[in-house]
Amino acid sequence: MRQSNTLVPTLRDDPSDAETASHRYMIRAGLIRPLVSGVYSYLPLGYRALRNVERIIREEMEKAGAIELLLPSLHPAELWQESGRWDEYGPELMRLADRHGRAFALGATHEEAITALVRDEVKSYKKLPLTLYQFQTKFRDERRPRFGLLRGREFLMKDAYSFDATPEGLDASYKRMYDAYEAALARCGLTFRAVEADSGSIGGTDTHEFVALSAVGEDTIAQCAGCGYAANVELAESAPEAAAPDTASSAPAGDRFPGGAIVETPGVRSIAQLSAFLGIEPKRIVKSIALLADGKPVVALVRGDRELNETKAKRLLAAANVEMMPEADIAGKLGSAAGFIGPVGLKAGVAIVADEEVRGMGGAVVGANEPGRHRVGVAADRDFRVDRYGDLRTAAPGDGCRRCGGEFRFHKGIEVGHVFKLGTKYSEPMRATFLDETGKPRPYWMGCYGIGVSRLLAAIVEQHHDEAGIVWPAEVAPYRVHLIQASARDAAQTELAERLYAGLRQTGISVLYDDRDERAGVKFADADLLGLPLRVTVGKRAADGVVECKPRTAAEPFELEAPELAAYVRERLFR
């Protein structure tokens, strides 16, 4: 493509709202432009790179035996009501009504649509296993779109769905998709981890996230240096720390307070303030957090130096929705006071769940459910009941792996893919069944497999850039070669550049030909910003048939005889 004939509006300065390298460079390189917050147009080079990512994923899907189709973006509310998600999904689901008042949603995900299709078209076990996939625009009303393509309201996604007759068949389909994702992400040049994760609003059981390592990522993953276990911090299982040696009857602050006493703590609301006031470590305090689980009041307990993991609380409570209780509701629902909640003396009917580390705490400090007061010398199961224990804490630095005792290391990352074993979560409520060998109807065993294609493109740029611009991996780059004519007015340069442009294209090598009437310095700066794998400059030695080559990752250029260029490109960029 001639650069003079396409749309590559590069910018010298960073956009004022760009917080990440990918957002900054994709705007400056003229790959994308915002239409409104969280919604982007893909300009020619950005669209070519997007299509290259799509091609890589498509090839790996085909290798895994998946079949491509295309589903609608507009979904009738009735489908989501069948699955139960119309009310559960939350405000991110973009809802609308047609002129007749019929309710619809713009597809945030396609479990309902694909289940309805297969339910109507596939009736026999002889058609199974079946894996279908699509590339489709998704819509989610993000509360705070940010970071360019990393968190938007409209984005391109590849989603696949497997249908099997048995749980064992689902296991096999899941493994094929897992392996296909690893292959696709590796071809895209990403450094990533596949980690255990929570299924969120999609539902299901076993699930893994594919996380591209990046300091700007909104996900945190914990990885054991010993056995290699890795999980999203929402799910990471750390070994519980042994309880402090105090006996249940001893006071946490020495002999100043008798066990079980209520202590006046005026103005003390935070763990840090309470720790300083009583002269104790935060791990001697039990933190009480007021929650609403499917609308019902719950108090969750964790050690004072720990953070409650709401995802784990949701799993332990088997609740569809868990949220923090508004302060205004605490007195009425719990019989307590905000900042001084404790498990002793709560209203009847309030469920209490506790992290497993709380079970062995003796001589603990808890809120006294009255403003400005705390209770000391308290022990679980002696002074208050716990309805259920479990792992409720967020894994933190210093924690050990539950599986082998090794040390956890923490990394930030960008979720670019997610695979789920849905089981019969959708097939049963939507009555999607097939006839087995005996003629009996059975629900499909389903899997769901998603890759955020547009987010993946941004993640690649996050991992592949330098101070000058993007550094594209060869398979993803919009073009493999950036051919630059140093002077548009030099006849020898024009003749050689045109010949090379035609010759490279004839051999199937994609070329962006900078034939603009611009200064060489402007062209070189744009070339570094655009980041194509190889820059070929037709310059002062054009009359001798010699060009200058500079791989984007190289510090210095080298000279090459023009007839050797195509073979060099083939060898270097198509291995």
TrEMBL record:
Protein name: Proline--tRNA ligase
Location(s), subcellular: Cytoplasm
EC annotation from Swiss-Prot or TrEMBL: 6.1.1.15
GO biological process per UniProt: prolyl-tRNA aminoacylation
Stretches assigned to the Aminoacyl-transfer RNA synthetases class-II family profile domain: 38-473
Gene3D superfamilies, per database record: Anticodon-binding domain, Bira Bifunctional Protein, Domain 2, YbaK/aminoacyl-tRNA synthetase-associated domain
The record's note on its domains: Consists of three domains: the N-terminal catalytic domain, the editing domain and the C-terminal anticodon-binding domain.
Family: Belongs to the class-II aminoacyl-tRNA synthetase family. ProS type 1 subfamily.
Entry annotated with the keyword Thylakoid: no
Principal cellular location given in the protein's record: cytoplasm
Assembly information from the UniProt record: Homodimer.
Annotated catalysed reactions: tRNA(Pro) + L-proline + ATP = L-prolyl-tRNA(Pro) + AMP + diphosphate
Single Gene Ontology MF annotation: proline-tRNA ligase activity
Keywords recorded for this protein, A-Z: Aminoacyl-tRNA synthetase, ATP-binding, Cytoplasm, Ligase, Nucleotide-binding, Protein biosynthesis
Cited Pfam families: HGTP_anticodon (PF03129), tRNA-synt_2b (PF00587), tRNA_edit (PF04073)
A cellular-component GO term for this protein: cytosol
Leading EC class: ligase
Function, as annotated: Catalyzes the attachment of proline to tRNA(Pro) in a two-step reaction: proline is first activated by ATP to form Pro-AMP and then transferred to the acceptor end of tRNA(Pro). As ProRS can inadvertently accommodate and process non-cognate amino acids such as alanine and cysteine, to avoid such errors it has two additional distinct editing activities against alanine. One activity is designated as 'pretransfer' editing and involves the tRNA(Pro)-independent hydrolysis of activated Ala-AMP.
